[in-house]
Amino acid sequence: MKLLEEKIKKDGRVINDNVLKVDSFLNHQIDPQLMNEIGKEFASSFAAEGITKIVTIESSGIAPAVMAGLYMNVPVIFARKRKSITLTDDLLTASVHSFTKNETNELAIAGKYLNENDKVLIIDDFLANGEAALALVKMVKQANASVAGIGIVIEKSFQPGAHKLKEQGLRVESLARIASLSNGEVTFITEKMEELV
Ligand code: 5GP
């Protein structure tokens, strides 16, 4: 998505070879116009899938997920992060190790919001090692709902997440795909590079 790539080039900050900071439009301050375009793009990518619910993870997945939900006219559920979950009835749960914070969180979704008839689109801000997305997939499956696809705002394609998800037969659509963050520079995957893969 051209607009997103331009925004990343202009306002993203490369922290090191593995981490990109986008606090000025996605992870802290949020650019509503850009989120609107992102929501529209996800909605058109997954239009044919019969999506009934969107599932994301707090907090940075919420803005793009809500915009997609608006265009798809479906509810948006965000998995809540807890340091530990006291066992309560009817919770879908998984644990996830945060790539950026180096901590493990328990995730929970109330079981009443997902059922076996749901076709779920999972949305997240970043895809790195795939931990967060796989934890969401696990929770959707606990509800016997099906995962129709995974929508990612920024995929770091040099990390293994996208490959892991696709290996499981999951459809992954990423709006910006980063080939490298080396030398303090963001390099996107171009169509030419894709032909070579
Ligand atoms: P994964 O679970 O795929 O390893 O990492 C995805 C999660 O880690 C995302 O939900 C996101 O919050 C965070 N994350 C991973 N890489 C980056 C990054 O380069 N920048 C930022 N801001 N967050 C990241």
Question: Could you please describe the fold and organization of this structure?
Answer:
It comes from Neobacillus driksii. It catalyses: XMP + diphosphate = xanthine + 5-phospho-alpha-D-ribose 1-diphosphate. It is found in: Cytoplasm. The strands form two sheets. This protein has an eight-stranded mixed beta sheet, sandwiched between helices. It has a two-stranded antiparallel ribbon with strand order 1-2. The two termini are 20 Å apart. It has seven helices and ten strands. It has 197 residues and is α/β, with parallel strands linked by helices. It has one domain: Rossmann fold (3-Layer(aba) Sandwich). The chain is globular and about 50 Å long. The longest helix has 14 residues. Helix 3 packs across helix 4. Bound molecules: guanosine-5'-monophosphate. The site of guanosine-5'-monophosphate has 19 residues, from strand 2, strand 7 and helix 5.
Distance between the termini: 20 Å
Query: How many whole angstroms does the radius of gyration measure?
Result: 16 Å
Shape: globular
The top level CATH class name: Alpha Beta
Ligand roster: guanosine-5'-monophosphate
Q: What oligomerization state is this entry in?
A: single chain
| Main structural class | alpha/beta
Roughly how much helix do the residues carry, as a percent range? 25-40%
In percent, how much strand structure appears in the residues? 25-35%
What is the average of the pLDDT values? 94
Low-confidence stretches: none
Biggest sheet, open or closed, and with what strands and sense? 8 strands, mixed
Order of neighbouring strands in the sheet with most strands: 5-6-4-3-7-8-9-10
**H/E element order:** HEEHHEHEEEEHEHEEH
GO molecular function: xanthine phosphoribosyltransferase activity
Catalytic activity: XMP + diphosphate = xanthine + 5-phospho-alpha-D-ribose 1-diphosphate
Keywords: Cytoplasm, Glycosyltransferase, Purine salvage, Transferase
Binding site for xanthine: 20, 27, 156
